[in-house]
Amino acid sequence: MKNISYILLLLALVPWADAQQRSPEALFKQWDKNKDSKLSLAELPINARRNFARVDTNKDGAISMEEHVRFLKGSSQLKGVTVLRDIPYAGTKNPRQMLDLILPEKRVGKEPLPVIAFIHGGGWRNGNKSSGVNRVSNLVQTGQYVGVSIGYRLSGEAIWPAQIHDCKAAIRWLRGNAKDHGMDPERIAVWGTSAGGHLVSMLGSTGGVKELEGKLGKHLGQSSRVSAVVNYYGPSALLQMNDHPGKMDHNAANSPESLLIGAPIQEAKKKTRLASPLTHVSKDDAPHLHVHGTKDPLVPFHQSQIYHAALMKAGVESTLITYQGGGHNAPRVVGENQVRLFLGWHLLGKGKKLSDEIISANR
Question: Same domain for 41 and 136?
Fold first, then answer.
C-alpha cells in the first residue's frame, strides 16, 4: 500500500480525462523538465515529494526511469496474486468500460471462490480502476476470494445513468464469465469509496430496478444483484447533501453531483432522486457495511446515517462504523478488521454479524 499516495498524487496533476491512458514512461518524460533521464526532487510535484526516498531505491539522489516504472507498476508484482488487466465488460473498446481481475495464485479448496469487486471514487469525474488492485489484494492473497476492480465512464464523458449502467454491466460480466475464472456467481460483494461508495450502494439497493440496468454487454440475461455492500463514505441522498454544509456547495451547477446529473440537482429533482440509493431502499436489498467520518467535509456523515437507518427500517442488515472525528477517509484498521469480518460473514459464512461501532480518529 505504500506506493498508493505517490501514484494518486502523481495522477492528480495529470488531466483526469486521459490519466488512464498515460503510461508510466510518458509521465516520466513529462516530469523530466531538463531531459536528463532522471527525476530530481525539485522536478516532482510538491505533494509527491514526500515519497521521493521510497521511489529512489538506490539512494543516488535521483529517480531513474526504471525506479519510476517499477514503483508505479508495483501492483502488477504483488505476491500471491495474478492480475489480468483491461478486460472489456461492455462490448466496447472504451478504456473506462474495462475491469481488472485479481486472482489468487493458491486457492483454498476446489470450489469456485466468492468475488470482491472494488469501485473507485473521485467525484464521478476523476480517478480510475488502478487503485482497486491494491485495495483488494490482501484479501485475495488469502486464497479465499477473487478480486475485481471496475472502471466506469466519468461524468465528463457521460452523465447519469451511464455510471450505474457500466457497473451493472460489469457485475453481469462477472456472472457470465464466472466458470472461466473459478468465481461463484452467487457470492459477489462490492466495495467502494466516496463516489464509488455511492455506486456500490446503488448496486446494493437497485437489484430489481429494470430502468437502471441498461443494455450494455453480452450478458443481459444475467442478474446485476450483489450479495453484500461495503460503503465507504458514499453519498446516499444527493438532494440532502447541502443540509449539512461542508467545504462544497453540492447544489451548485458545477458541483460533482450536478455534473453527474447533467443539471443543477435542485433543478432536476426527479432524476437526482432516482440517482440516490436512499430512494430505492427495499427489504430485498443486500446487507451493507457503512464506514464514515463524523467530520467529513465532502460527503456529510448524515448521508450514511440516514441510509443506514432506512435500510434497518426496511429489515435489511446494515452496520454503521462511525469514524469519530474522521474526515473523508477511513483508517486502514477498518479494512483489516471490520471489512474482513463483514465479508467473511456474508461470503464465507464464517464469524458473526457485526454490530455498529465507534472508532476514534485519535486512537
Answer: no
27 and 118 co-located in one domain:
no
What are φ and ψ of residue 44, in 5° steps?
A: -75, 150
Domain count, the chain: 2
- Helix, strand, coil share of the chain (percent; to 5): 40, 20, 40
Following DSSP, what letter does each residue of 197-250 receive, concatenated? HHHHHHHHH-TT-GGGT---SS-TTS----SEEEEES--S-GGGGGGS--SS-T
Find all residues with CB under 8 Å of 13, minimum gap 6, and list them.
45, 48
CA distance 135 to 140: 10
8-12, 99-103, 119-123, 310-314: least confidently modelled range = 8-12
pLDDT at 55: 83
- Provide the residue type at 230 as one letter: V
Number of Cβ within a 10 Å radius of residue 122? 21
Same domain, yes or no: 230 and 288 = yes
Q: 225-244 pLDDT, tens per residue?
A: 999 999 999 999 999 999 99
What is the per-residue pLDDT for 15? 34
State the Cα–Cα distance between residues 83 and 308, nearest whole angstrom: 34
Residue 86 and residue 32 share a domain: no
Residue 13 sits in which domain range?
4-72
Instruction: Tell me how far apart the terminal alpha carbons of the chain are, to the nearest angstrom.
Output: 21
User: Which cell numbers hold the place of 291?
Assistant: 464506514
Query: Do 125 and 34 reside in the same domain of the chain?
Result: no
CATH code assigned at 103: 3.40.50.1820
Beta strands at 318-324 and 288-293: parallel, antiparallel or unpaired: parallel
